[in-house]
Design a protein that fits this description.
D-tyrosyl-trna(Tyr) Deacylase, Chain: A; two-stranded antiparallel ribbon; 8 strands
Length: 148
């Protein structure tokens, strides 16, 4: 599982001209799922995400977590995080989880995140989405479950 975490001042998801999700200060997270991922993997990634201290405290040090700043969370499914670009110029996506498995696990991630974060919004699995964000910093971190 891969999370691309961006600390944002705001972020939104539009589908066919309709805003389906919007947050203020918090994290916009692109979520990639592979076939080997399961609920235990998701739980481990969510624990790390929700406790990650990348907001500045009064001294300007990155010491505060999402809950400490009353931040929101926008989760966006992103199978292209598993692109394999080793051969040729056209990426292969065979390492991404099959849509049924990945969709179910993404739904699980959203559901579990809502148990820890008061304001959770989500993109739509399989939809063509336009993502807008104002990155705060910029501050972007890539979490890979294979490295945790």
């Amino acid at each position: 599982m891969k999370f691309v975490i961006q600390r944002v001042l705001s972020s939104s998801v539009d589908i066919e001209g309709n805003k389906v999700a919007e947050i203020g200060k918090g994290f916009m997270v692109l979520v990639g799922v592979c076939e080997e991922d399961d609920e235990q993997t998701a739980d481990k990634m969510l624990r790390k995400l929700c406790t990650m201290r990348i907001f500045e405290d009064e001294a300007g040090k990155t010491n505060l977590a999402l809950a400490d700043v009353g931040g929101s969370l926008l989760l966006v499914p992103q199978f292209t995080l598993y692109a394999d670009c080793k051969k040729g110029n056209r990426p292969s996506f065979t390492k991404a989880g099959n849509p049924e498995h990945a969709s179910a696990l993404f739904d699980y991630i959203v559901s579990e995140a809502r148990k820890s974060v008061s304001d959770v919004k989500a993109g739509v699995f399989g939809a063509y989405m336009k993502i807008s964000l104002i990155n705060d910093g910029p501050f972007t971190i890539v979490l890979n479950s294979a490295e945790l």
